């Protein structure tokens, strides 16, 4: 059975709703899933999981949330080589630049992105929820 971590930061609840759908998809596919808020996850936990879904909304000038998520993610970066990952998040403005930048960082770190990232504007609609469930299944 695959062990999957879903690690996210959410300010308004939109990315949390996406994280819940990712976890549901992975569970439906037969994985043992643990969901963490960014403040409760550390790089030392990465080795416990076969794959990780990271979720963070776009903040400021299309960047990762800086006080909790970005420091946690940066501490994980040296351990991402060969790790199966998927990324998701919501945004309120912009065109998804933060996600393209984040994907590039993960590739440069040697991570294996198992599927297309999922982004949605504001609250995830039914299509975004389904895409998040598919993302979770792809991690298994």
Please state the CA-atom Rg, rounded to the nearest Å.
13 Å
Largest sheet: 6 strands, parallel
Stretches where pLDDT is under 50 for at least 5 consecutive residues are none
Beta-strand percent range: 15-25%
Q: Could you tell me the mean pLDDT?
A: 96
Task: Kindly report how far apart the N and C termini lie.
Answer: 8 Å
Give the helix/strand class: alpha/beta
Helices, by number, come to 4
Total number of strands = 6
Q: Which series of helices and strands comes N to C?
A: EHEEHEHEEH
Shape: globular
Helix content: 25-40%
How does this model look, in words?
- The chain has 140 residues and is of the alpha/beta class.
- Helix content is 35%, strand content 22%.
- The protein is built from 4 helices and 6 strands; from the N terminus they run βαββαβαββα.
- Strands 1, 2, 3, 4, 5 and 6 form a 6-stranded parallel β-sheet that branches.
- Helix 1 (14-28) packs across helix 4.
- The radius of gyration is 13 Å and the shape is globular.
């Amino acid at each position: 059975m695959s062990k999957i971590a879903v690690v996210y930061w959410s300010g308004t609840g939109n990315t949390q709703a996406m994280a819940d759908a990712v976890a549901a998809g992975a569970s439906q596919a037969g994985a043992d899933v643990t969901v963490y808020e960014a403040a409760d996850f550390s790089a030392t936990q990465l080795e416990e999981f076969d794959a990780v879904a990271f979720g963070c909304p776009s903040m400021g000038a299309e960047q990762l949330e800086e006080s909790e998520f970005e420091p946690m993610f940066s501490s994980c970066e040296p351990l991402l080589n060969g790790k199966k990952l998927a990324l998701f998040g919501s945004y309120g403005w912009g065109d998804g630049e933060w996600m393209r930048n984040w994907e590039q960082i993960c590739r440069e770190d040697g991570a294996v992105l198992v599927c297309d990232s999922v982004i949605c504007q504001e609250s995830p609609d039914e299509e975004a929820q389904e895409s998040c469930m598919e993302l979770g299944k792809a991690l298994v």
